[in-house]
Design brief:
By secondary structure, the protein is mainly α. Helix content is about 75%, strand content about 0%. It has 25 helices and no strands. About 0% of the residues have low confidence. InterPro entries: Sec10-like, Sec10_HB, Sec10_N. Keywords: Coiled coil, Exocytosis, Transport. It comes from Terrapene triunguis (Three-toed box turtle). One of its GO terms (biological process) is exocytosis.
Amino acid sequence: MAATAELFEEPFVADEYIERLAWRIPGGGSRGGAEAFDPKRLLEEFVNHIQELQVMDERIQRKVEKLEQHCQKEAKEFAKKVQELQKSNQVAFQHFQELDEHISYVATKVCHLGDQLEGVNTPRQRAVEAQKLMKYFNEFLDGELKSDVFTNSEKIKEAADIIQKLHLIAQELPFDRFSEVKSKIASKYHDLELQLIQEFTNAQRRGEISRMREVAAVLLHFKGYSHCVDVYIKQCQEGAYLRNDIFEDTAILCQRVNKQVGDIFSSPETVLAKLIQNIFEVKLQSNVKDQLEEHRKSDAEQYLKNLYELYTRTTNLSSKLMEFNLGTDKQTFLSKLIKSIFISYLENYIEVEIGYLKSRSAMILQRYYDSKNHQKRSIGTGGIQDLKERIRQRTNLPLGPSIDTHGETFLSQEVVVNLLQETKQAFERCHRLSDHSDLPKNAFRIFSMLVEFLCIEHIDYALETGLAGIPSPDSKNANLYFLDVVHQANTIFHLFDKQFNDHLMPLISSSPKLSECLQKKKDIIEQMEMKLDVGIDRTLNCMIGQMKHILAAEQKKTDFKPEDENSVLIQYTNACVKVCGYVRKQVEKIRKSMDGKNVDTVLMELGVRFHRLIYEHLQQYSYSCMGGMLAICDVAEYRKCAKDFKIPLVLQLFDTLHALCNLLVVAPDNLKQVCSGEQLANLDKNILHSFVQLRADYRSARLARHFS
């Protein structure tokens, strides 16, 4: 049976059980082993095992029945005990209700008795107290204070209570009959009040919080209680301002007082608020006045810096004080204190700001022009100037004499950074010091100053000077500096736009001034871009003019119609080399001077004009066979140069021009085939004919016949 029990494992699986049993029987394994498989023996063992299981089942069944009987017996006994306990609980609950009713009855009787006793005792106590007050009043009436409470300094608390009550009574008495006694009581009242305040002062100096609390509680009913608070506030500040940082000292002082004021006074929030008010109206106001009045009329820059710093530190201090309990509306309370200090300075802040910004910006610009030994020209305004501007925009003609700027752009990164820095600080001060309703208007005025001095007085002046410095297209060896102006102006525009977005937009984003600022910015940028476009266009004309001078000086008629066809050894002409070199330098300069799509736009315009120049230049010569080959080589070099533009249209134009040059050398019999090729098929026949006419052999009847 023990062996059978070992075969049971949790969880029980019948198949696994049979398998384990078979393996334990010698010769019963299904996979072979030391003994051969014996089915009879296996059957015999299974039969015996079944019998053992049956016996085991019977024994277990008997045990289960016995346990069930025992469990039923215990359940009956437990139910009987529960019923007995329920009966006992009901009896106890009844006793508890009776006891509760009895206690309530007794308590009612006691309360009634207490009320009766109080009704008897209260008048008695009042009578006793009135008798004592009459006794003390008689002493004042007789003019001699004999009671121990008035002569013993240790009983000052009791004396204060008595004299305070006598003082109230004396005020109800007629003056003509009791003037003398009323005077004596008032005198004693005043003396005790002074003694209590002195006692409070001494206790504060000794740091005895408990004694201060006792004296303050007594003084609470006296008229001099506010004087007690004043003494506390005054002594709190003694030795608190030993450093130069009044704001940090104030924060530390208020933190310290906030911890102890609740242990001394019955209304700590009132005392703390009065302390803060005293600090603001005396200490801070005096400090602010000293620092601002010193520079108010003599140094606007220092005045604005001090005003911004003092106001910022005061508002930061106010934020720290908001942590304390100062009453119901502490935000309004602190705001009024700050306003009382700075109201006279904030009323005309923006006028001082604009005046300083104007003078400072003018000085920065003048200092720059002085460093360049440049006398700033007056850019005219009015009808004549406007007429000139419109003519120049429409015709690109230089109006007036050209000015030699000696390569100076009259644009300075340092000047721009200084102007933007001054304006940035002005925006920060404006944000902090302006009233919320005036903030957009004030920010717009500062922005207008930036536009006037940065955009008009500096950038626009540089553009005008740069335009005046662009030579005419016919000038030889002209130095073109306007692209340097473009490059620097482009950089400045980015900085200007960044400050607009970073510092101005947050101040005006939710006001009507936003659209006004955006329009002003748009107008000034469009005005600048228009002048830049004019300058770039005239600069491109000058570049083309320089190329014309190179071609006129270097290109010879014999280049394309040599006297000895066999003596031509060069790959391309000298004129082509110099023009390509010049063009590559200008392309590189344009890429450095501009960014984004502007680069492609300008390069495409230059490329188209470059192509037109070469096209018209080639039309001026007659070409022999060898000269035509040299022209093809030149155009191939021009096309290689055009690849540097990285503009598909420009490269396509030179590819077509290269194909046209093939007409100069192709055999007469193949002219029609070449003209119908992919690159030339879409061209006007007159263009093709014009190139064929450039051939030296065009007059021959054979060539004319083939092309007709």
